[in-house]
Write a structure and sequence with these properties.
The protein has 13 helices and 16 strands. The protein is α/β, with parallel strands linked by helices and 398 residues long. It folds into two domains: 224 residues, Glycogen Phosphorylase B (Rossmann fold, 3-Layer(aba) Sandwich); 153 residues, Glycogen Phosphorylase B (Rossmann fold), CATH 3.40.50. Strands 3-4-2-1-7-8-9-10 form an eight-stranded mixed sheet, with helices on both faces. Helix 7 links the parallel strand 11 and strand 12. Helix 7 packs parallel to helix 8. 47% of the residues are buried.
Length: 398
């Protein structure tokens, strides 16, 4: 099959959605399929569409400051370029994985060419930190509708106006797709309750990157933890850092933590952990280095609460035979044998969990052994088997 994966975001930015898409591409290509990535690109100069080794990049009109979100309009010029590219590449399926202008343009072209549209939703749980949302939501709605060339629904999901707007944006794209995929069952249930019709496929994110065999965690090694995510308030790096500092005081500094990522909280995180050499802030790292850091750690930490669908961090940690310390009970999928849920989602809960790991040296190796069982869910063969069945079903009806 020949598949086009559509992403409004910059693929160079380190985020869970981008990582998932790259892993999907690898898994499908290893199984003999052809996958092209259609994404936005950095910069405002040059041709509207530029070829890359992975597919094509579309020039945005501008990039939203702070969010690093390129804005590609759904206009006739972009649609014409996509239509020609889909024809030239003999695309069979358009797999949309974002919900902004480029995704809407691709969906419109797919309808014109009678190609099936599959939509993977990486998060329905949009959460922003801005203050007076009611005063800006109307402007965001106006701007988004101008970009996507479509009206956005007005269902209420949260008390925050801008978050409602983005959830409706996601919902509207899901409703127009031929089939929706959710990496987690809990998000699928919420999407169905929100109004997504039909059967929503639950298909975990695959991990297909490293040819280096993983190894179980050895015994007698001082605990070390890896926090890796966007360094933003929604991922709560400061909450975990405060818990780690408290645990250092309670254990006499008997463990270490590496923080990887970039974002709005990076400067405050760096200042917070200053004076604690066991807590290292590494900033952004390549994906290859992240996998190496996972292998060097005893466990990976996920500190988000109420935001994530299924973090790629979980899939990658479990696939490398590492346990996961987490605080959101909704993220238990894929962590039956390899997850450790903190008693509370605050700094005290993280501190207590770390102290438990330090005091009982059997806990982390046990999670590692459990990861060897749980990682089957994230195997690339499992993903390819199920996603190609979805593709074939929708191609037959197109």
């Amino acid at each position: 099959m020949r598949i086009a994966i559509i992403c409004d975001y910059l693929l160079s930015y380190v985020g869970g959605a981008q990582t998932s898409m790259k892993q999907q591409k690898l898994a499908l290509e290893e199984a003999g399929h052809t996958v092209v990535m259609v994404s936005s690109r950095k910069g405002l100069l040059g041709p509207r569409v530029r070829s890359t080794d992975a597919g094509i990049e579309v020039q945005p009109n501008f990039t939203v400051p702070g969010l690093l979100l390129p804005v590609v309009p759904n206009n006739s010029s972009v649609r014409a370029k996509l239509a020609q590219y889909f024809r030239d590449e003999r695309i069979d399926v358009v797999h949309i994985q974002t919900e902004f202008g480029l995704a809407h343009a691709a969906a419109d072209v797919a309808a014109e060419l009678r190609l099936p549209v599959v939509h993977t939703i990486h998060t329905f749980y949009w959460a922003s930190e801005s203050g007076p949302q009611a005063s800006i939501a109307w402007f965001l709605r106006w701007g988004l509708q101008l970009v996507i060339k479509s009206k956005i629904s007005r269902k209420t999901f949260t008390p925050r106006a801008a978050d409602n707007l983005l959830r409706n944006l996601t919902l509207d794209m899901a409703i127009r797709a031929d089939r929706v995929i959710s990496p987690s069952a809990h998000q699928a249930a919420d999407l169905a309750a929100a109004g997504v019709p039909g059967d929503i496929a639950v298909l975990p994110n695959p991990v297909a990157t490293s040819a280096t065999p993983s190894a179980p965690l050895g015994a007698g090694i001082p605990p070390s933890f890896l926090w890796v995510a966007r360094c933003e308030p929604i991922k709560r790096p400061l909450v975990f850092a405060r818990g780690a500092i408290a645990a250092l005081e309670q254990t006499g500094g008997a463990f270490s933590v590496d923080f990887v990522g970039e974002g709005a909280d990076l400067a405050e995180l760096t200042a917070l952990v200053a004076g604690h050499p066991q807590l290292r802030v590494r900033g952004v790292q390549s994906h290859e280095n992240v996998l190496k850091l996972i292998d060097e750690s005893s466990a990976v930490v996920v500190s988000s609460l109420g935001f994530d669908n299924q973090p790629m961090t979980i899939a990658e940690a479990v696939s490398r035979q590492r346990g996961v310390l987490y605080c959101d009970p909704k993220l238990s999928e894929g962590l039956v044998n390899s997850g450790y849920l903190s008693a509370t989602p605050d700094a005290d809960g993280f501190a207590a969990a770390i102290v438990a790991f330090v005091n009982d040296p059997t806990l982390l190796p046990k999670l590692s052994r459990g990861a060897a069982i749980d990682r089957v869910a994230f195997a690339p063969a499992n993903y390819v088997k199920h996603v190609t069945a979805i593709y074939e079903s929708k191609m037959a009806k197109a």
